[in-house]
Amino acid sequence: MKRILGKSNIEVSALGMGCWAIGGPAWEKGQPIGWGVTDDNASIRGLERGLAEGINFLDTSNMYGAGHSEHLIGKVLKGRRSQAVIATKFGWVFDEERKEKLGYDLSPSFIISSCEDSLRRLCTDYIDLYLLHVGDYPAEKAGDVIEVMEKLVAQGKIRAYGWSTDSTERAAAIAPGKHCAAIEHNENIFDDNALMLALCESENLASINRSPLAMGLLSGKYRADMVMNANDIRGRANQAWLKFFQNGRPSEEFLSRIEQIREILTSNGRTLVQGTLAWLWARSPRAIPIPGFRTDAQIAESAGAMQFGPLSPMQMAQIEEKLFPPLRH
User: What letter does residue 87 receive in the DSSP assignment?
Assistant: First the structure.
């Protein structure tokens, strides 16, 4: 299965590798913004397995592990850069030594220096897709970012760009850029951003699906009595936006909703993960889900979804009816 990154005509696998978790721990004001302690050797095996399984799209950020995710990708791709399409992100200021997020800077000089730093960590001389990572940056300032991005394209530093945001207003503001190719946004069975998918269709942009497994909840491995690790972002308490993991525990409400549709998602021999990814491909021909991973086994399971392809229209309708039953009078 293949996809095109919007106007760029860059071909990628229909499935990407989300490389946030492999960055390891990072912090903001004492709170975790990573996914806990990781094993670099396991992360490298996962990246290697993904490439071997035909997944050539890697999504990362300079902020993931304060640069550590990029370092790992650079190590794996050394000597075979052409085998992968890399998306990375910019905008956040961080202390690489202390792995601490400090704020953001989107001045032209900082964007350019961030690009150079990412190129160095990735051990490459070009980035395929460069994404603005500050999701709530004012839409009216998008023109300034576009100007810098186009200069980086002209210099051969990047091939295309876009925005990681859930706001259609912001996505629409960057879409007119000549080399704007993609929007990265939350998209999963429980977080369906129909307006964003429509915008990607009308503007000829790829829809890169962040959190396709609802921060892992749709993997099927979590129970209501589990407690997330303190250095895992899902372990943070009193964060309304962490709706799939409330107060450091998996959400009972969403676990119950998974059970309502489990049989449909796992039909035809799929695992729950594979059925969830199949829903996304059926939802939009522009969808490129980027599930995160820690192990090569997780990568292999996700890659297996490509053998099945998207859910059928009938299965999509069945899920819709289960989750949003029509009102009966």
Answer: E
86-104, pLDDT tens digit by residue? Answer: 999 999 999 999 999 999 9
Q: Return the number of other C-beta atoms located less than 10 Å from residue 134's C-beta.
A: 19
In the sheet that holds 92-95, the strands lie side by side as 31-32, 27-28, 100-104, 92-95
Instruction: Report d(CA 156, CA 123) in Å as an integer.
Output: 15
pLDDT of residue 139 exceeding 50, the answer is: yes
Element (H, E) at 302: helix 296-308
pTM: 0.95
The C-alpha atoms of residue 295 and residue 293 are separated, in whole angstroms, by 6
Q: How many helices (H) and strands (E) does the chain have?
A: 10, 16
Place of tokens 């086994």: 297
- In angstroms, the first-to-last Cα distance of the chain is 43
What 3-state class would DSSP assign to 112? helix
Say which residue the tokens 């094993």 belong to: 39
**SS3 at position 317:** helix
**Given phi > 0 = left and psi -120 to 50 = alpha, else beta, which region is 113?**
alpha
Tens digit of each residue's pLDDT (9 = 90 or more) over 19-70: 999 999 999 999 999 988 999 999 999 999 999 999 999 999 999 999 999 9
Please give the DSSP secondary-structure letter assigned to residue 23.
Answer: G
Backbone φ, ψ for residue 52 (5° rounding)? -65, -30
By residue count, the chain amounts to 329
Structure tokens that stand for 199 in this block: 């915008």
What pLDDT score was predicted for residue 329? Answer: 43
Cα–Cα nearest to 3, from 78, 60, 61, 54: 54
Domains of the chain: 2-219+281-309 (3.20.20.100)
- Which residues, including other chains, have CB under 8 Å from residue 329's CB and lie 6 or more apart? none
